[in-house]
Each structure stands twice: as structure tokens, then as C-alpha cells.
Design a protein that fits this description.
34% strand, 192 residues
């Protein structure tokens, strides 16, 4: 019996990017397509099969412990990004300024899709949703560089709307305009 249920919810990839050098800037560089490998997007600073642990998993691992990289991509919702922009006092917010790897349009309440959901592309390439990507202060600098003062509002504006982190389960290629079908774990909600 399958453990993941395909849904009728299909989004569309409307933007793709990668961060080549996080030390220089969190700003992504836009592209029309990207190869998805088991290590993420080639040349992406967040790629790799493993990564050093960070503050997000400090309750499980001492900082800088080598762990599996389930944060290879940062995927944001087109609709939620528009809400963040409005809350920052902007007409629009370039996804490059928040270090996005991908922007998807058409999946409701995207930031809260269940962990372990799959986003499957037409060629079979599949991304596994790790969890909600909590907002942090890092996008403030690139946002402020283009829109002085707006970046200072980002962390609060992005709460519950920052998208998800994901990792590559099946390799392939993603392109702007590709459909992404949502598959969710076939289980009841956890009730402690």
C-alpha cells in the first residue's frame, strides 16, 4: 500500500535560482532551468549530501556536526512572497533577495504542506519537503540594498510564509513553466 497519496493540487515553477557564494551574498542568481542531483543544484552553496548542523537543529546535534543535508533547496510560494512584499511595504519582492532556489505558484498554504510531502516534476524528478523554512535575519541585507528599510521588516513579515526546505529524492531537471504535483503522506495528523 503506498505511503504517499498523489493530490490533484498542481503548482507551476515560476522562478529558479541558486546562491553561488553565501559569504559574498545570500542573493540568488536567476536561471531558466536547473539540474537536480542527489546533492541539490550544482554550484548552489546549500548543496551537498551532508552539511554542518546549525541553530535549527541545536536540540539534536552540537553546532557544526556533520548531518544529512535536507536543506538543499529553499522553495517559496509566489502567493506568500507577494504577501511578504506587501507587509514590507513593497509592490513585489524579488525571490533572489531572499536566497530562493525555486518559486512555485498555485499550491495553497504552501509553507505548511506536511513534512515528507513530495513535489514531483514532469520528468519524474522529485523533491522531498523537509519542513517549514523559518524566517531569519539574513535576507534583510540584500533586501535593504535594493529597498532601504524594507529588509528590516522581512523576518516578521515572513513568519509562516517563508516556504519550505527540500532535498532531491529523484534526479532530473526543473524548468520555468514546469508543473509540480503535490503528494502528501497518507496518514492522520499527529495527536499527542
Amino acid at each position: 500500500m503506498p505511503a504517499l497519496a498523489p493530490t490533484e493540487i498542481t503548482g507551476e515553477i515560476v522562478w529558479i535560482g541558486h546562491v553561488p557564494d553565501r559569504e559574498a551574498s545570500l542573493r540568488s542568481q536567476a536561471t531558466q532551468e536547473a539540474k537536480l542531483t542527489y546533492a541539490g543544484i550544482p554550484g548552489e552553496v546549500h548543496g551537498g549530501l551532508t552539511r554542518p548542523s546549525c541553530s535549527r537543529v541545536i536540540s539534536q546535534h552540537p553546532r557544526d556536526t556533520d548531518i544529512r543535508n535536507v536543506r538543499q533547496l529553499s522553495i517559496v510560494s509566489f502567493e506568500e512572497l507577494a504577501e511578504i512584499a506587501a507587509d514590507c511595504g513593497l509592490d513585489a519582492l524579488d525571490p533572489a533577495l531572499v536566497g530562493a532556489s525555486m518559486v512555485v505558484r498555485g499550491i495553497p498554504d504552501f509553507t505548511h504542506v506536511p513534512p515528507s510531502s513530495r513535489l514531483q516534476l514532469p520528468d519524474g524528478a522529485t523533491l522531498v519537503v523537509d519542513m517549514e523554512n523559518r524566517p531569519c535575519h539574513l535576507p534583510a541585507k540584500p533586501i535593504n540594498a535594493d529597498h532601504p528599510g524594507a529588509g528590516d521588516k522581512f523576518k516578521i513579515a515572513a513568519k509562516g510564509k517563508r516556504g519550505v526546505t527540500a532535498w532531491v529524492e529523484r534526479e532530473g531537471v526543473c524548468r520555468i513553466g514546469d508543473a509540480v504535483r503535490l503528494h502528501v503522506p497518507d496518514q492522520r495528523a499527529w495527536a499527542p
